[in-house]
Each structure stands twice: as structure tokens, then as C-alpha cells.
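Note to self: keep these together.
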Amino acid sequence: MSAVRIPWRGHAAALRIDPVAAAIAVATALFHIATARGYGWFRDELYYLACSRHLDWGYVDHPPLVALAGFVVRNTLGTSLVALRLFPALCAGATVLVAAAIARQMGGGRTAQAAAATAVALAPVNLSLASVFSMNPIDHLIWALMLLVATRLMVTDDRRLWLLFGALAGIGLENKLSVLFLGAGVAAGLLLAREGRHLIDPRLHAGGAIAAVLFAPHLLWQMAHDWPTAEFVRNATEHKNVALTPLAYLREQIVMMNPLALPLWLAGLALLLFARNGRPWRPLGWAWPVAFAILVFQNGKPYYLAPIYPLLFAAGGLVLEGAARRRPAVAGSAVALLAVSGLALAPLAKPLLSEDDYVRYAALFGMTPGSDERKTLGRLPQFFADMHGWPEMAAAVAGVAAALPPEERARACVFGQNYGEAAALDLFGPALGAPRAISGHNNYWLWGPRGCDGSVLIIIGGERADHERVFADVGEAGRFDCVDCMPYEDDQPIWIARGLRVPVRELWPSIQHYI
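Structure:
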């Protein structure tokens, strides 16, 4: 029987993985659930919850799926940290499971699957991104599923799987546009590996059409709103993201995936690109250098490439398993080394230690606080610093609002300089009696003044002189200080501004801030 005629139900075998790898996947999810509280709320989590209260087909800086996920979580489990972070924990466990399934499709047994599962579970970047509710855990899972489908397709030559690949791509695009990097990598890989027969296959085109149909609502939203994401990406590339040379970008890949895991994924990449037994998956192997080149050229953040590594770790597991046949002790030692080193690096990637202990632990590794954005840092890296200060900021603003005369308090609004400040007031403010929040940052600008007339505005931060250009009366009414938050959020004045000089509808276009 021709491989092309394999029935659909035969592909369910792709998910039958070794019990050891399955146990690693379950342990991954449980580990993230047990450590879900971390240091506190992360800036972007607050924003995604705000977006979940304004469901739409798009947002300035992301497609709609993460907001929909936030809506479901908020209306079922609530908005506690544990409730919100259960979702990324389950995504992380599922991604580990799929990584092992990819190894299985390549012919890998227990060793290959365990190596792939361990490497994916404990890669520092994966530990970080699964710590908070965001687009990224969903993105990692969708990439892994697309790679599993593509791997299966290359094994069976069942090109109907391009339909499933396209459906996953369409869903992925409604979560994060970076799925385009994988699509471009696979398309280029088919050409470079001389597998052009796939490119002219109508089932691949049908898969592309499915992806386009699923992505169309967001695309139409972009058109209706004058392509805000294009402006956001342009501003972020030019003014926010740290520019890296190809060598520096590669160095970041090595660090974020665990330096001791480098031999595993490098061996996997070599197998996919050059080895005879990697020939069936050569088009997928080319996806890594193609996506790498695109991201370097576009000044993309290093972690944007992280979702492709389940493929490389799976292929590397195959190489390790082959070596273990000649030297059985090699496999166990290698997997143990991945596990021990991954656990040792975990406190540097995920909030497991107190702030003081983290600083001491990082010093043992010679690490200094880092960020992939052009921001001044304190003693914590930006990822950790952005988990500090939000409830306290809302409380400080609520205290200023409480001191207003009742008639002014009824008309007051809060202006945040960025979506983190505004979203913190949206989440914590109602219980504290704080006014509603507005901002000109990203989608807060699209949501407009939200009924605020500008007659009494509580402003977080900024300069008095700038505020006095548009308000008749500006006075400092309080101050917000935070420990270990991002320095630009610390020691911020809280102003009371009265007497807006121009109508809100005339002022609003000038405060748009997409970055």
C-alpha cells in the first residue's frame, strides 16, 4: 500500500510517546503550576487582561487569541496569579509532549524522546516564557504542533497533512505574527532541499488558503484601523529593541537554550541539513537558518526564534541515541547533564528565589541584569523587574483620588504613561476606589478617553512643564516609590491636573504612542 494512502486515523500514532517523556511533560506543567506566584503580576499580563475586557479581532501590538484566552480564564477561574498562569503551565507541558512526539516521528526511542523533552522543558527561555500569561506559551505550542505535522508529513508523504499544517498556521497567526517566520522557513526549505513538488501540490495551496481564511478577520481589522501593527513594529525596531549582530544573536540563542544543550541542538541541525538519515526532514532543517536570518535582519528579539528548537532537540536526540548504541553510558549521562544544568539555571530564568538571593545567585554565574530593550535597569533583569510594584502603584493613585473633594472624585480619571500603569489601575483600582484609567499607549489609545472629560486628571509621572501646556492647573499630590521595579517606574510624581485647555477629542490624536 502506498504511504500516501495512509488513513487519517493512522496519524494518531504520532502522539504515542514513551512514558518517560510523558512523565517529563507532566512534571513540567506541575512545576510551573507549583511556582506560579513568582514575584507578582507581570506588566504584560495586566495588559492582556485589559484587552480581554475589550474583545476585538485585533490590537495594536498583537492578534486577538491571547485576549480571548484571557477572557475565558477571567470568567471561569478568575484573575488570581495561579488561575492566570495555569494556562501557560499547561501549554509548556504540552509543548514538551509534542517535542517528544517529533523525536518519535524521526524514529527516536526512549533516549531521543527523553533528551528532547528534557531540553525543551528546562531551556531557560522556555522556563521564563511559561512563567507568565502571554502569547508566547501558545506560540511555542503551535509551532511545535506545526513541526510535528510537517515531520509526520515528510515521513509518510501524506500531503493531506498540509491542510492541518495550514489550519494550525491560521490559528497561530491569530495569536502571534511570528508564525510567518516558520512558514517562510519551511517554504524556503522546500526549495533549498529540492522538494519543489510540495510547492506545486494543490493540498499545500489549500492549506495556505485555510490559513488565510482563519487570519482574515485580523487582517481586515488591521486594514480598518490603518495598519497599527506595522507602525508598532517599525517604532519598536527603531527605538526600543536592542540591535544585535548575527554573532551576538547566535550567542543569545546559545545562552537562552542552555549553553550545555548546544551540542544537542547543533547535532540536530547538522543531522537535518547534512546527514543521510536526516534527508526526509531537510526542508524543516533549513527553516532554522532562514528564520534566523530574517529575525537578525528585522532586529527581532532573540526569543522569537525559541519555538523552533523542539525540532532541533528532537533531531539531536536521534543523534544521541545513535551514539548510545556504541556507548550506552553516554545517553544517560547526557540527559542527566541536561536536567542538572537546566535546574541549576532555572533560578536565573524563572522567579524561584527571593530578590536578594537571586542577586547573589546571579553573581555566582557572573551575570548582570539584562534586557532585549533599550532600558535602564536596576539590580534585576527587566523580566523580573516588571513583576514588581503594580498593586502598590494602584494603591498610591487610589490614595490621591480619595483625598479629592467628592465632586472632583466623581469626575476624575487616571492617565498612565504606558499600558502597564493603566492596566494596573484597571485590575486593582476598582477594589480600591480608584478612578478608571486611560492612556495613549498602544491599544489604550484606540479605546479612547473612555468617558473622561479631562476636567480632573490624575497623572502618573511625566514632567510638570509638559502637563502645564495642556492644563490650566497642575500640582503634585503624591509620589510613588517601588523596590526592584523598572527604574523608570520608580520615584514617580502623581499629579492632579485641572482645567484642560482644549477638548479631549482634539487632544486625543496627539497622544498616540505605538511602541
